[in-house]
Design a protein that fits this description.
Blueprint (H helix, E strand, L loop, with lengths): L1 E4 L3 E4 L6 E2 L12 E5 L10 E6 L6 E5 L28 E8 L8 E2 L5 E4 L4 E4 L11 E2 H12 L2
Antiparallel strand pairs: 1-2, 3-4, 4-5, 5-6, 6-7, 7-8, 7-9, 8-11, 9-10
Length: about 150
């Protein structure tokens, strides 16, 4: 399949890379088909990828693995909220956080309150709101990564 995207032009995708979101994502419930796209030019240099709508080429959300921005991300999720994913094993789940990336990189945030969760085997995804009260909608990524680097001695 050829996907037309705003940021990457036309991208060829294998059918097994297409993800179905039965309920869409928050704010875009009518859009159901997505793919995770990586910037091949910067592969390895960044942990940011893009959740690209295959139905609306202008919609691509920057997303990141929560463990790239914090060492402690253990969302509390009711089992019934994961039902649209089938019956996934824990190791088949991929968690991503949607990001807001302003021009000032010190103000980059990630939404820890509403992760995107993908069953990598069934190719189904959901975005849901987690129960953890201490997870903010606007988690400062820059500050957290700087603290992680300090702890690692970088």
């Amino acid at each position: 399949m050829i996907a037309k995207t705003k940021f990457f032009g036309e991208v060829e995708l294998d059918d097994d890379k297409i993800l179905e979101f039965p309920h869409g994502i928050i704010g875009f419930e009518e859009l159901r088909k997505f793919a995770i796209i990586y910037d091949e030019k910067n592969e390895g240099a960044t942990t940011i990828s893009w959740l690209q709508s295959l139905e609306e080429q202008s919609l691509a959300l920057p997303v990141i693995d929560p463990l790239a921005v914090t060492t402690d991300y253990t969302p509390m999720i009711e089992d019934e909220l994961l039902e649209p994913l089938g019956n996934p094993a824990d190791e088949d789940l991929l968690f991503l956080l949607a990001m807001t990336v302003p021009s000032d990189m010190t103000k980059v945030t990630a939404n820890m309150k509403a992760p995107i969760i993908v069953n990598t085997v069934a190719k189904k995804g959901v975005q849901l709101i987690v129960e953890n009260e201490d997870y903010p909608v606007k988690f400062n990524v820059y500050e957290s990564v700087q603290k992680m680097k300090e702890k690692a001695g970088e």
